[in-house]
Design goal:
DNA-directed RNA polymerase activity, DNA primase, zinc ion binding, 52% helix, 688 residues, alpha+beta, Dna Topoisomerase Vi A Subunit, Chain: A, domain 2, 5-stranded antiparallel sheet
């Protein structure tokens, strides 16, 4: 286990904004930062990072926590793995105590997968730099492409030797598990090297770890494919990976634009030319996962194609998914015979940037112009052209953007704007109808599966009833029908992420509202000063006033928060927000984030721009003493009302049974009501 001293150092050092910005494009808004949530698909930013509080919170899907929680959720890491990630990021040395064999084995398996891939990368590099064949074939190939040695090493390029099992034998001899070699796709089921006589391109995840490889063959006139990639593994899912994303993410965020190319060498060549905001889809159509990866850093994507218009037209058909995800897409057609690699090397960085900036055309307008050339003078082709353009426009989720495209395309093609509006609306309705049908189909399938699971096992032939079936048998269908009350009345699958409502907070019961308010003050301002003269903190004041009734709390989680604070004070620790925000119990941490985060903030413009100041009280975040008094009075008033009701019930029981001293209950009733009325008067509350 990682020692507590190391954990404390990691948590003190890690800055939530630094960690989140490795994965999300954040923009300043007041004292906070905002961006698109990486945990659900959204078009309007609802993801907030508070550097001062050290937390993030999405007000769309409800996810929230500290820097450690973010990397655990985003990278699907365990608690120790998340700590190791942060320790590695900030260069903190980890001190550990002994761990169980089971926990050690689980952790080592995950680490071993990355270690084997890292060994493979180093092996391929050594083969290229230290063997005659590697130098003469692979290294010379990269240098002929114009790649400098420092860039070759930065991207980890290498060479897989031609031997049928050279890599496998070397790895096993060095102690690497043979089964892991198979699991990672480096060795075939027949113990042969998967990559042979190919130049190698390591593929990294966003953390910089090697998760797979691409290999390009060097020998011509063979039947083997030009490129082969690592098969799907525990750590490599090609639909969620973009080549070069690790090296490009900072530049993409900085320039607020992602350049998409086709191949590995295009990425490396552009990166070498200081065009670093570039990634490759590796020759496949973009997937939702890859588009989501880009969208974390920018909503602007620029796609580069060579001069082959026929190939471009075919490629454009696969970009509807990009439009559906709300990205702003521009197309750049490079000069004939040029690809990004060759063109940047022939004209240089500045000329290349100028060209792609000047020649970039909006996707819809580019598609319209390209198809219009093809349909010139042919009404039939023009009709088909309009249908294709309308289909593309209908995929844009923003209705305002859709209407602007309709207007521009109508002007470009010389057709009535209303005609395109009508056709676009039909296409949108058809798409929504199709999605609804798919939801219904899946709901039916889920219901069938549920009923099959709940159905009793079939009877054996010996137990089957003899003779005619009983009356009514077979009258009821085995599964729901489309009639009212059937499957169509069942709830469909949950809304798509972009349509998800804000998370619904559990409705407090009993005195839950008042208890939550006290917990809010304790969590967010427990270390604030309540009384300057006595040195009393807010936490000490709250605990002193609720400790005797803590067992009577209606909400067990709120009760647990106060218990944590009491334990901290007994150990001489301060009750700070970090005590709860970094707490190991998930429900405590989640509550602390919910109480600390708010979609609203006090605008600095009130004072800086309008010169309107708070005169009767301190700023909200500094007003804990007054807030504590008010909240405690409301809490005590609530408890007094409860005690009055309980005493009244006891008095009624005494009078009905004729047993007990009812005068005691009468006097207690008077005293409780007196206290209640005084407290209500202080709060300005009317008591009935």
């Amino acid at each position: 286990m990682i020692k507590q001293k190391t954990i404390d150092e990691i948590m003190e050092t890690a800055r939530v904004e630094d960690v989140v910005e490795d994965f999300v494009n954040l923009k300043r808004r007041g004292v906070n930062l905002i961006g698109l949530c990486p945990f659900h698909n959204e078009k309007t930013p609802s993801f907030t990072v508070s550097p001062s509080k050290g937390i993030y919170k999405c007000f769309g899907c409800g996810e929230g926590g500290d820097a450690l929680k973010f990397v655990m959720e985003h990278e699907q890491l365990s608690y120790p793995e998340g700590l190791r990630y942060l320790a590695n990021k900030y260069g903190i040395e980890i001190e550990e105590t002994e761990v169980s064999d089971e926990a050690r084995a689980e952790r080592q398996h995950q680490e071993s997968l990355f270690l084997v891939n890292e060994f493979a990368k180093q092996f391929y590099q050594e083969q290229m730099f230290e063997t005659d064949r590697g130098k003469s074939v692979a290294l010379s190939y990269f240098k002929q492409r114009g790649f400098r040695e420092e860039v070759i090493k930065k991207f980890g390029l290498g060479y897989a030797p031609a031997g049928k099992d050279t890599f496998t034998l070397t790895a096993v001899q060095k102690g690497y598990n043979a089964d892991l070699l198979k699991q990672l796709g480096l060795t075939s089921q027949y113990w042969r090297d998967f990559f042979r006589d190919r130049v190698m391109f390591p593929i990294h995840n966003l953390s910089g770890k090697v998760i797979g490889f691409g290999g390009r063959i060097l020998v011509k006139d063979v039947k083997a494919p030009k490129y082969v990639n690592t098969p799907e593994t525990e750590v490599y899912n090609k639909s969620k990976v973009l080549y070069g994303a690790f090296h490009a993410k900072q530049a993409i965020r900085k320039r607020d634009e992602c350049i998409l190319v086709e191949g590995y060498t295009d990425v490396i060549s552009l990166h070498q030319a200081d065009v670093k905001n570039v990634v490759a889809s590796s020759g496949t159509s973009l997937t939702v996962g890859q588009i989501g990866l880009i969208k974390r850093y920018t909503e602007n994507i620029k796609i580069l194609y060579d001069g082959d218009k026929a190939g471009v037209k075919a490629a454009l058909r696969g970009l509807g998914l990009v439009l559906e995800q709300g990205l702003n897409v521009k197309i750049v057609l490079l000069p004939d015979g040029e690809d990004p690699d060759s063109y940047v090397q022939s004209v240089g960085t500045d000329a290349f940037r100028n060209y792609i900036d000047q020649e970039a055309k909006d996707f819809i307008m580019f598609q319209a112009g390209l198809l219009q050339e093809e349909a010139a003078g042919d009404p039939v082709k023009l009709s088909k052209l309009i249908q294709e353009i309308v289909e593309s426009i209908s995929k844009i989720p923003d209705p305002i953007k859709r209407s602007l495209y309709v207007r521009e395309c109508a002007n470009l093609m010389g057709v009535d704007e209303q005609l395109l509006v009508n056709e676009a609306n039909k296409a949108v309705e058809a798409r929504l109808r199709k999605k609804e049908q798919e939801r219904q189909r899946e709901a039916r399938q889920q219901e069938r599966a549920r009923r099959l699971q709940e159905a009793p096992p079939p009877s054996s032939p010996k137990s089957l009833p003899q003779g005619p079936p009983p009356p009514g048998a077979g009258d009821e269908p085995p599964f729901p029908t489309e009639e009212p009350g059937g499957i169509t009345d069942l709830p469909f699958e949950e809304l798509p992420p972009e349509e998800m409502p804000a998370p619904v907070r559990e409705k407090p019961v009993g005195d839950g509202f008042q208890e939550r308010d006290l917990v809010r003050i304790l969590v967010t301002g427990g270390d604030a000063q309540f009384d300057q003269e006595d040195g009393l903190t807010v936490a000490e004041y709250l605990i002193a006033n609720v400790e005797d009734v803590l067992d009577e709390f209606d909400n067990s989680l709120y009760q647990r928060v106060f218990q944590i604070a009491i334990e901290a004070l007994s150990e001489g620790k301060a009750v700070t927000p970090k005590l709860f925000l970094h707490h190991i119990e998930d429900d405590v941490q989640r509550l602390a984030v919910d109480l600390s985060a708010s979609p609203y903030e006090y605008s600095e413009n009130w004072a800086n721009k309008w010169e309107i100041f708070l005169n009767t009280q301190k700023m909200p975040d500094e007003n804990f003493a007054k807030d504590s008094l008010s909240a405690m009075k409301r809490f005590r008033l609530r408890k007094l009302n409860r005690m009055i009701r309980q005493n009244a019930d006891q008095l009624k029981a005494v009078m009905e049974k004729g047993e007990g001293d009812y005068m005691v209950h009468l006097k207690l009733d008077q005293k409780l009501k007196q206290l209640r009325n005084e407290l209500a008067k202080e709060l300005g509350t009317v008591v009935f």
